[in-house]
Amino acid sequence: MDSLSRAQTEVQQEKIWSRDFVIICLANFFVFLGFQMTLPTIPLFVKELGGSDQLIGFVVGIFTFSALLFRPYAGHALESKGRGFVYLLGLSIFVLSVGGFAFVASIVFLFILRIIQGIGWGFSTTAGGTIATDIIPASRRGEGLGYFGLSGNIALALGPSLGLTLAGIISFKQLFLICAALGLISFVLASKIKYKKVNESEAKVTHVKFDIFEKTALQPSMLVFFITVTFGGIATFLPLYAIEKGVTGIHYYFLIYALFLMLSRTFAGKIYDKKGHLYVFPPGAALIFIAMLLLAWLPNTPILLLAATLYGLGFGIVQPALQAWSVEKAPSNRKGMANATFFSFFDLGIGIGAMLFGQLAVFGYHSIYITSAGSIFLCLLLYGGLVWRAKRQIQ
Question: Contacts for 272-275 with beta carbons within 8 Å, 24 or more apart?
């Protein structure tokens, strides 16, 4: 057997599904399930507390910006304090804050707990992605991150409908305690992982003041920003838009979206590992672009479900590829910061998208999705510019 064939065989034999990888996927699933169950029920809870639609927007939005602000701190702590410390701390904060929802009697207290929940979410998700990156063989990082993301996608498929179903059967107090219990299961699982040890010499490297991002992760992070801007318009306004258009089946939209998101993750990462982002990102972004145009049109239910299919496929293709791209060139002592940079831009896109589209809604809901298509178009232009620049540098 020649050296090339032997190298290829060794790559094929590198395992993704190790003990620790299975555990981190399960831990990710349970904390995401607890989170996704609260996503559609928090607005109902605010209504029950006597809050207005405007207050619902603030309570929902503050979570995203809280997570965004604390991700850089999580990135630094991952390299100085260790993966396990940050992950378990984040999960603990998540469990306590969500469990605290059960005892809320005022919107002010809920608002404070949402800020705390955002901190826990920022720490735990940044750490979870970094831990998965540590465990996955570098040669199969795109594929492995696709599988890791799949654990969150399954929770996305189950969580919202399960949360809404339980909200109609049990009290909000019982619901939030169940969500906290799911986070506790994640904590117990996470305590069983063998974490990468902190390299003391690397941890003591002096960082630039106001070091809040990893520069090698900026390009894919900027791209994911333009992608996730579209999610704010879908999660917040699509149900209202469907009612206005007289289109039924909105509850199937998120299920189909999640199913095709999961499907695309089973093959997109492998293509990225073998061919690179050039073979993954443009087609994935193009599918999202078409989905936004279909939503801007939205004449009937079949078009709604077709848009869900294309959006799920497109997002599932580009997200793991961009995440793998964001960490692959980062130094070994900056992988955590690279993940923090990626998810900060991810959160920023959702938060800015929701705020922007709230203002655009006065021009009609269709304008939200036309603008979303414009965001994807700008994203493709930016990507083309980055590829052209990279080729010029090689020449």
Answer: 272/142, 272/143, 272/320, 272/321, 272/324, 272/325, 273/139, 273/140, 273/141, 273/142, 273/143, 273/324
